[in-house]
Design brief:
The protein has 317 residues and is mainly alpha-helical. It is built from 14 helices and four strands. Helix 1 crosses helix 2 and helix 8 runs antiparallel to helix 11. The chain is globular, with a radius of gyration of 20 Å. The N terminus and C terminus are likely disordered.
Length: 317
C-alpha cells in the first residue's frame, strides 16, 4: 500500500532532525530545479481574498482605490502594513511570493529603469490603485494619506492619522522596524527545527505546487538556519531570546498602566508593534513571549481592536 501523506511528512521530518544538512543537500539536488521552473499563470499570480475584503464592511473606502500586496506570510513588515489596513477596515488582496523563485515579482523587470520598483525583489510591494509602491515605510505613508482623507467623523481613525505626526509615536514606529523586527529572524531560526516550522506556512498557499512547498520549506529553513549567525553578528546580538524579551520589556514599560500607547485606543505605534509581533503567531517563539513577558494583556486588547486578519492561519496552534 502507498504511504500516507502524514506518514511521509513524519518520515521527512525525522530525516531532517537526523541530518539537516544532508536533507538540505538532497532538496537542493532533486527539488530545487523543479521549484525554480517557470510557474503557470495561476501559480505566479495567486491572490487570496482577505476575510474582511467585502466592500460593504469597509469603514474607509480608500477613495475607491483597490489595494494588492505582494508578501511573505511571515514577513514582519508585511504584517505591519496588513495590521494597519485591518484596523482601518481597508479591503485588500494579497499575493504570496515564492521565496525561492520570486516569480510573482518578475513583472518588475519590465518597469522603466527609473521606476523605484524596477527589478524589485523584496516585500512588501503594494499596488494602490494604479500606483506601485515599494518599501514598507513608504507604503504606510501612502495608505495613511488616503485614510486621513476619508477619516472625518471617525474619532479612532482621526486619532490614528494624527498620531503619525507625533515625535514619540514616530520613535516607536522606527523601533518596530529597526529593533523589534530585526530580532525576529534570529529568534525564529535558533534551531533547524524552528526554521523548518517557520517555513511551514507555504503548505497553506494553494498557488504553490507540492514541489514548491517542499522545496521552500526544506531549502528556506536551511538557508535561514545557516544565516542566523551572520545576522546576529551584523546586529551585535549575543543572546537572541534575552534581547527579544528586553526589547518587548521596553515596549510594555512605555505603555505602562494604559490600555494602549495611544491611551484608550491604539495609535500608529501600537499597530506597528502589534503587526510585527503578529508575524510570529502560531510559532513557539510567539507562545513563549506571551507567557514569559508582560506583553500578553496588551496583545490581547490589540487583537480585539484590530479585528480579523487577512487569512486566518488555522493550521497553527
Amino acid at each position: 500500500a502507498a504511504m500516507k501523506w502524514g506518514q511521509l511528512g513524519g518520515a521527512m521530518r525525522a530525516a531532517v532532525s537526523a541530518s539537516p544538512l544532508a536533507a538540505a543537500a538532497a532538496a537542493t539536488t532533486f527539488i530545487a530545479p523543479l521549484a525554480l521552473r517557470s510557474p503557470s499563470s495561476a501559480e505566479a499570480f495567486f491572490a487570496r481574498k482577505p476575510m474582511s475584503s467585502n466592500a460593504s464592511e469597509a469603514r474607509i473606502p480608500l477613495q475607491g482605490l483597490s489595494v494588492k500586496m505582494f508578501q511573505y506570510e511571515i514577513c514582519p513588515f508585511c504584517n505591519k502594513i496588513k495590521t494597519v489596513m485591518d484596523y482601518c477596515k481597508v479591503p485588500y488582496d494579497t499575493v504570496e511570493v515564492n521565496p525561492l523563485s520570486k516569480a510573482q515579482l518578475s513583472f518588475t523587470k519590465e518597469l522603466p529603469e527609473d521606476h523605484v520598483a524596477h527589478k524589485y525583489k523584496k516585500v512588501p510591494l503594494t499596488m494602490v490603485g494604479e500606483e506601485l509602491v515599494a518599501d514598507s515605510p513608504v507604503i504606510l505613508d501612502k495608505l495613511l494619506q488616503l485614510v486621513a482623507a476619508d477619516a472625518s467623523g471617525n474619532k479612532d481613525l482621526e486619532m490614528l492619522c494624527k498620531s503619525a505626526n507625533d515625535d514619540e509615536v514616530k520613535k516607536w514606529v522606527v523601533f518596530a522596524d529597526k529593533e523589534l523586527a530585526v530580532l525576529l529572524f534570529p529568534n525564529l531560526t535558533r534551531t533547524f527545527a524552528e526554521s523548518y516550522e517557520a517555513f511551514g506556512y507555504v503548505h497553506d498557499v494553494p498557488g504553490f505546487s507540492f514541489v514548491d512547498k517542499m522545496a521552500n520549506q526544506w531549502m528556506g529553513a536551511t538557508a535561514m538556519w545557516l544565516a542566523q549567525g551572520k545576522i546576529k553578528k551584523k546586529y551585535n546580538i549575543t543572546d537572541e531570546r534575552k534581547a527579544l524579551h528586553e526589547c518587548i520589556g521596553r515596549w510594555t514599560s512605555a505603555i505602562g498602566s494604559k490600555d494602549f500607547l495611544g491611551g484608550s485606543s491604539p495609535n500608529l505605534a501600537d499597530l506597528c508593534v502589534f503587526g510585527t509581533l503578529r508575524s510570529l503567531e502560531g510559532f513557539a517563539t510567539h507562545r513563549e513571549i506571551l507567557a514569559q513577558t508582560d506583553v500578553g494583556p496588551w496583545y490581547e486588547r490589540m487583537g480585539k481592536a484590530v479585528g480579523p486578519r487577512n487569512g486566518a492561519r488555522s493550521s497553527r496552534t
